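SEVERITY: medium
COMPONENT: batch folding queue
REPORTER: lab tech (J.R.)

DESCRIPTION
The queue accepted two submissions in a row. Attaching both inputs and their returned structure tokens so the on-call engineer can compare them side by side.

ATTACHMENT 1
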Amino acid sequence: MHGEPKYPEDFKHFNYVNPLAPKGGDVKLAATGTFDSFNGFIIKGNPAAGLGLIYDSLLTSSADEAFTEYGLLAETVETDAERTYVTFTLRKDAYWHDGKPITADDVIWTFNTLYEKGAPFYRFYYGSVAEAQKVDERTVKFTFKPGENRELPLILGQLNVLPKHYWEDRDFEATTQEPPLGSGPYKIDSFEAGRHVTYRRNPEYWGAKHPANVGLYNFDTIRYDYYRDATVQIEAFKGGEFDFRAENSSKAWATSYNIAEVDAGVIVKEELAHERAAGMQGFVFNTRRTKFQDPQVRRALSYVFDFEWSNANLFYGQYSRTRSFFDNSELAARGLPEGEELEILEQFRGRIPDEVFTTEYVPPSTDGSGRNRANLKVAVELLREAGWQIRDKKLTNVETGEVMTFEVLLVSPLFERIVNPMAKSLRRIGIDVSVRTVDAAQYRRRLDTFDFDMVTTVWGQSLSPGNEQRDFWSSDAADREGSRNLAGIKDPVIDELIELVIAAPDRESLVQRVRALDRVLQWGFWAIPQFHSKVDRVIYWDKFDHPEQTPTTGTSILRWWIDKGRESTLSERRRVMGKG
């Protein structure tokens, strides 16, 4: 994205893989909810886990750089200094699973179809592309609309190319349970809709020896079994029903695996540090609801969440408080703005809160005792200033008589223990709050149509933010079904800041522009910040090995391999432990 790539033109493999990792063996993983489609590019349906395994992209990212891509399907990449276009020339030896070569027609068809018929994300991501032009059978040129958007060559490189000859006689906008044709390292081998899907490594995969793939895709098969929720998954894992789990529940990590198999090393419990941006996880206000349109109301309600008590009593002290939309990275706005960031923000003085210039944003905190009366008093005063008062034990809008009530929508029962204490505090200040947990399909549909009052979400961030910010925060995205602008943000200043981020000419300018965007988002109180972890928590049956080096973005089981010696003794070790 900025500067020069870390790896030379003739690199043999990435530093964070084992190039000698043995191939073979089977791995079973778990997914939550259900699936009914193998088309993961549209808004309809629930796509199966692991679909990315069957596709290749034009370029592929390294995991130890902020944003650098290397050729995959594309043999060469050409662009100009201003990045007004990008040209990809495909490899001669890249072909589909049916043996047909991947062509420029496939690339152009894919781009046009995703833009016109795919999920809304693609229209935001590729919105600055003016034209996709076929140069010859293996070469495609993308020309860009006027304006600075230096990220476009890279995000076009992320394009998962689809086979035109397979899809052109099928309805791309419909869900499908027919395994689609791909070009990637795996094929769909078998499945039962809603219950399991198995991918088998393609022994004739064209890219098996490509430097960017060396050390990856080591398992013969990868199977995903579906479970109703995380609680059931954990018990199934301990029973040996699947092999590996990335644990995102601090309670489960602290209490659910205190078993003999862990003590004996038959199950390995491991924390792997990472340096990736945490993004923002929070309770999101849907500002399409009138009750949440006043930022003063949103600010008041942020005083109700007692992170310090929750971290000590619910999370076993495992989390750090999130305060930035780009937390755990140099992109996070801290202190007061200065230098280039201040110059950027000065352009918007009078259109953004004065606190942006005078006060560092810090989420409300407590002493962790669970007695949150001081913060609740602040919340009540802020609500009074916003025109809400407690009448007959109910928070009531003075002008309209509306009683404050809302629903917190969840998809996992595990999160109820986090929401319920906050809901109790909300009720203490007269707000009638309900907590509702629904199945994965209903949850996704309600999010896609913005049919909720408050949800918990994670806006994940890379170390090189760009065009995806339109999908997160832009006015256009607020009205597009299926977008990630769950908060419903419609702010011309934020729209302008997004475009400044996209147009950043170098790394330092990118950092300063992202900090400016972050600071304005912080003072918009679009979400009540929650927490993040600086480690990946993984637990697995002792049949795997993995590279010693964990890259910036964290661990991935696709870089792991099976240790045949340990696997051969695992059954006997499990039998001894009473799990055979």
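ATTACHMENT 2
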Amino acid sequence: MKTDIEISQGTRLQPIQEIAAMAGLRDDELELYGPYKAKVNLNAIEDRRYRPPGKLILVTAMTPTPAGEGKTTTTIGLTQALCRLGKRALLALREPSLGPSFGVKGGAAGGGYSQVLPMEDINLHFTGDIHAVTAAHNLLAALVDNSIHHGNPLHFDSRRIAWRRVMDMNERALRNVVIGLGGTAHGIPRESGFDISVASEIMAILCLANDLMDLKRRLQRMVLGYSLEGEAVTAGDLGGTGALTILLKDAIKPNLVQTVENTPALIHGGPFANIAHGCSSVVATRLGMHLGDYLVTEAGFGADLGAEKFFHLKCRMSELQPSAAVIVASIRGLRLHGGVPRVLLDQPDPKAVSRGLANLEKHLENMAAFRIPVVVSINRFTSDTAEEIKLVQERLQQLGVESAVSEVWEYGGAGGMELAEKVVAACAQPSQLRFLYQPDQPLREKIEIICRQVYGAAGVALTSEAEKSLNALETAGYGSLPICMAKTQYSLSDDPALLGRPQGFVVQIREVRLSAGAGFVIPITGSVLTMPGLPRHPAAMKMDIDEQGRITGLF
């Protein structure tokens, strides 16, 4: 079996105009970024509003192992399989961040014969969208400090500046910094810090905006800090949102690429699911739904994070109605949640798999609570045994849940035909998304509903600072906003060490942040960080390029 990068570099790509034509796009709706990438003008969505939208399929997962469960690979392979069935299908994915690409993962473009291409470009700078977000975010940070330096006309309280800086790299040394040192010519000293770019509120806004002017309006609503009088100071108060919008005028346009099987793929936006809302952009989703009969998309990490936010944030704000969900599970993941140490995950252990099913069952219960038809995709690895797979299938059959073994990594679309058939059948079932909380409920009540119903927590504990923040947000008129939980992806709880289906735990909320422009409140739980660090052996240390420009080690 060839490696992922060998498959990627050995695939014959079609010119992007041909891929666009397959999707029903005209040449004049494209902005080319070389022969195999293009941006799609936003008017392509408006011009197709007359066409009924296709079925929206969400790919999510059980609580993942550190290596992931294969959601992206499954999303790509499922779309390829749908096309093999004669369906008009597209996919929509998030853009990989350089942080995890050079840190843990070494790339995020699928795998095997279910990849999006050109893989090297997608995993690196792509079309510059994340760089544009970084530039816009940091321009605004510079404008804040410049305003304070030049007389502070908005009366910023330098102790309550909420707008930090960002960079698209894992850099733990910049989590907390002091800026403005060196004398009065260099600014006013104050504490600040860096987040990773994909955690920026501007990234969330980019992915939730309906068009360029909606983007601009949302940027104006962002709260940058508070005045000495205790009032919120917004980007609209400061000015400069026109400049931010200019920096983002191309970034808001979806990116069109292709899969190994030359299936059209939209890749746009990249908010993390553990610290942001974890979904690709609304504009890419709408475009794909108006171009195809089926649009397959994914939400980051497990269903407790990605799917919950996909439903409560993206679908609610944009009035999207999912037709079905796919939960990706793996025997390796079930072994982990059944108590097998990470170093032994490739060794068969049916008893551990049986114990680990409790984790998958909780995610299935959550999908039922949202009233979305679901299919489980058992993502097959070479270490899986027939006994373990049969055990999982029999348990799912007892629960009345459809499942299919997926081999899309090894065989591409051909390895996902059974999955595709069952997803088509699921899309034909009644589906009416049910939200677990309502906007008029208090913020704390919304948080408790998510923690108790989705995570299975016994309760919620807030620090005094977090409690104070929630009360202040309610008083300031932000109480109707939805919740975007920042939580570890490795457990249903807020403790990454609690595997399986933990019970009796209390979710600890240490801090609450407001994203007024994106339109949600972010409770930060446990030890989750908005600026990750590099692992002991970063993926970057294995990468290289030769004199012909051929890249190795990226994936």
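NOTES FROM REPORTER
The first helix runs from residue 4 to 10.
No errors were logged for either attachment.
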